[in-house]
Structures are given as structure tokens and as C-alpha cells.
Amino acid sequence: MIDVVICDDHKIVREGLSKIISNFPDIKILSDDIASGEELLQRLRKEQPDVIVLDVSLPGRSGLEVLKQVKIFYPEIKVLVLSMYPEDQFAIRMLKAGASGYLHKDSAPEVLIDAIRTVQEGGEYLSPAITKLLYREMNNKNQDLPHKQLSDREYEVFLAIGEGKANNQIASQLMLSAKTISTYRSRILTKMNMDNNSDIIKYILLHNLLPSA
């Protein structure tokens, strides 16, 4: 039996995933009511599943930050990331942080089940798109787009700016001070060779970096 918990800030998504997974007798849902990274980390202090199905976009700590915490304190737990962000936006960062797989939320139900079983058995679930990304990562590092050079935290701030959020909103979302966000913004502008938020927004729209839905 594979014990699974689902962490997603949308109740309808959690319930939908739970309904899909409950059709398979070899997989058991331990919890489908976890809506934030903080809730997940609190739950893990009481019980540890075999697999966590984790969203990237969460209130407070992002899925990326939560993943890093999980792998520090519970390295044996497998984490399968399920996100609206396309593979080329977050998959590499998530895999480097310790995720065992990455799926887009429009994946077919049977793909989700196959991925859960694969990571539980100690494998990594790599779609053809992710395999291609990994190959490109290894062989074309010098040809990366500028945003690939941002740190994980800088990238999160970068995307939040692209969504039109003000510094205080981003600070609240990431549980940081507005001054810290301003520092990250300055670093981003320098690394990206940009002048202002409008440049960031234009770049993000041009490269389709926001989630598809």
C-alpha cells in the first residue's frame, strides 16, 4: 500500500485528485485537506506518507521552499510535483531540490497513478519533455535564457512581479520583509539587464512564463 498526502491550496483540485487516486486499491490517501506548506510540515511531524503530491504555488512558503524543507527533515519521503506551470518553468528547479517527478495538472489520471507508483518504487518520473530539458541543461548551459541564471528565490520574486504584484504583496506571499523583496528585485534587474518592472513583465509575457491556468 502506498500512503499519499496531497498539498494544494485549491480544495477542488485536492478533492479531484483524491477521487482519482481512491479508485486504485494499492494507493491510500492519508490526507487531502492540506492547503499550505506550513500545514504540510505540521502534518509530517505526526505522520509521514510514502509520497507527497505537492503543488508549486502555495500561500506562504512556495512549493519549492517546502520541498527543500521536506527533503532536509524527511529525505525518505518521495515528492511528486503537480503544477500548472509548464515543465520548462519549474521542473529542473524542483528536480534539483529533490523532487522525484514533475507533472502538469492537465496530465491524464493514469499518468498521475503511474508517476506515484514509479516514485514510490525509487524511480524518477520523467516525461519526454523533462528528459529533453535535462539533456539541454547538461549540454547547453551557456545558451540558457537570462531568467535561468536567477536563484530559486529570485525566480519566485521574478514571477510574482510578472503577475503584477507589489513588493508588500510579494513579501506577504513569501513571508519576507518588503525591504528583502526590494533587494531581490534589484538583483533581478541587474542579472537580467533590465531597468524596471515593466521590462520584467514584458519578458515574462514574451517567454510565456506564467502558469497556463
What's this entry about, in short?
Helices cover 51% and strands 13% of the residues. With 213 residues, it is of the alpha/beta class.
Report on this model:
By secondary structure, this protein is α/β, with parallel strands linked by helices. It has two domains: 2-139, Response regulator (Rossmann fold, 3-Layer(aba) Sandwich); 145-206, Arc Repressor Mutant, subunit A. It is 51% helix and 13% strand. It has ten helices and five strands. The chain has helices at 11-21, 37-44, 63-73, 87-97, 109-120, 128-139, 152-162, 167-174, 178-192, 197-206, and strands at residues 2-7, 27-34, 51-54, 78-83, 101-104. The protein has a five-stranded parallel β-sheet, sandwiched between helices. Strand 1, helix 1 and strand 2 (27-34) form a beta-alpha-beta unit. The model has no long low-confidence stretch (mean pLDDT 88).
